[in-house]
Amino acid sequence: MPKDDPETTALKKELTDLIAKVKAAQEKVADAKLAEKCSDMGDVPKIRFVTKKTLKGHINKVNSVHYSGDSRHCVTGSLDGKLIIWDTWSGNKVQVIPLRSAWVMSVAFAPSGNFVACGGMDNMCTVYDVNNRDATGAAKMVRELAGYEGFLSSCRFLDDTHILTGSGDMKICVWDLEAGKREMDFNAHAGDVVSISLGPDMKTYVTGSVDRTCKLWDVRDEKAKQTFFGHDADVNSVCYHPSGQAFATASEDKTARLFDLRSDQQLGHYTPPGNSGFTSCALSLSGRYLLAGSDDNAVHSWDTLKVAHTGTLNAHENRVTSISVAPNGIAMASCSWDQSVRVWG
């Protein structure tokens, strides 16, 4: 790599010094530790999730899973070039949607259950209408949202007419699906935007990036409300707390963390028994359990308040790539490079 010129070196130093000042100011007002304050609380039981259904149908690595708002159906995307919509109660496939590009990295189910979306290395977000079929009998493609200069890493529906996307060109976009046009398009991070999680009110969201930061945004604003530092490697996943006052993260640095929006800093720091990085995270409906999918083929669980490891879910035979908790909190779906999807409950 070419050497930085003196101006770039000076700017980098200024940025590092500013981050150090912010961290020092945060530590100054951090008058207590979460685990200490919650030490007299009763312990939560060890997580006792078992595999209720193993969903088999993909013939390559499964990269993403997301629940519908009905807490019954979920959608998965795989490198076999298929989206599959599953009935997680029966374990049956509801629809199989063939994709134009097999390199899918992210899937999303609209809360209404009417639409699914996906994207990846094809540098576009494709939206399908679950209730209408094309001539082949598959769900009808209603939009191909193109114009990205990098891979599509994350997408989430705001409602049936708007979708939020994050991509490898460091941008966040909000699309009007009826018009097929971008309503917002802006640079969000200094690296790939890897993960997006919407708040319970659907008015705010958090993002995680390979630039090791997380940011809080208002759905209608291009300026970040807050920026959070702390991770030492890529932030692979973010998950909004059900209370709307905090969010969890999972990182390549082998830690999961909990950040509080009101105090503007990290509250919890969670490490696994082993030495593997995390790919994805989710929170239970109460927010008491933090779950993280890992490179060690397992899903790890912690008590968020007591900052204690509460169990490991072992069943997958390869890297766990994505997890999604049902909106009603009753079940969790996980997918893996072992080509399977598991429903836990």
From TrEMBL:
PROSITE patterns given in the database record: WD_REPEATS_1 (PS00678), WD_REPEATS_2 (PS50082), WD_REPEATS_REGION (PS50294)
Gene Ontology process terms (BP): signal transduction
Residues in the signal sequence: none
Keywords, ordered alphabetically: Coiled coil, Repeat, Transducer, WD repeat
Pfam families (alphabetical): WD40_Gbeta
WD repeats: 55-96, 145-185, 186-227, 228-269, 313-345
Coiled coil: 8-35
PANTHER family: GUANINE NUCLEOTIDE-BINDING PROTEIN BETA G PROTEIN BETA (PTHR19850)
Recorded family membership: Belongs to the WD repeat G protein beta family.
Protein name per the record: Guanine nucleotide-binding protein subunit beta-2
Protein's gene: LOC106126176
